[in-house]
Amino acid sequence: MSQTAEKLSQAAETSAFSHLDLAATDRLLIIAEERVEQSKEALAKYQSIAEGNQKVLKSTFETAWLAGNELALTTIAALRANTEADFSYLKALAGAKSLPDVIEVQTTFFRKRVEIGVEQAGNLRALTTKAATDLAKPIKVAIEKTLRDLPVAP
Questions:
Q1: Is pLDDT at 8 greater than 80 in this prediction?
Q2: Eight-state DSSP code of residue 54
Q3: Are 96 and 105 in contact (CB under 8 A)?
Q4: Rg (CA), the chain
Q5: Among 4-8, 13-17, 147-151, which is the least confidently predicted range?
Q6: pLDDT tier at 108 (50, 70, 90 boundaries)?
Q7: Helix orientation angle between 22-94 and 99-149, rounded to the nearest 10 degrees
Q8: Exposure string for 124-134, b = 16+ CB within 10 A, e = fewer
Q9: 17 φ, ψ (degrees, to nearest 5)
Q10: Measured in Å, how far apart are the chain's first and last C-alpha atoms?
Q11: Which pTM does this prediction carry?
Q12: CB 88 within 8 A of CB 106
């Protein structure tokens, strides 16, 4: 019997509850100590899970930051390419000598703009899909691990 159980047993013998069955109180004390120990073990397990999840979240935030930077740089590059294409178009339009030249410059410009727009949209879609996958995978794994490792109440 532990020291706590012995002290409580002695206190029970000298208290107003001395008429209670000492064997029963000893059993209750043992059960209580077992529950306290189980609670300590469960708390340690929860702390371990929380620390693991904290690491996953930190890594996920870093991944999100990197993906955000990559998307920002890609967007800036697209805006720059679009601006350069617009200035080239205006320069070519200003150099047109006749109406057929103007129509040809506009047709060429709009065709190239559509091609560039489709390419830029594809690049952004690929980046956002990769970012979403990179962000979701570790979170999904962490949730599955947490649910698998959670202690079950007795």
A1: no
A2: H
A3: yes
A4: 36
A5: 13-17
A6: very high
A7: 170
A8: eeebeeebeee
A9: -100, 20
A10: 23
A11: 0.62
A12: no
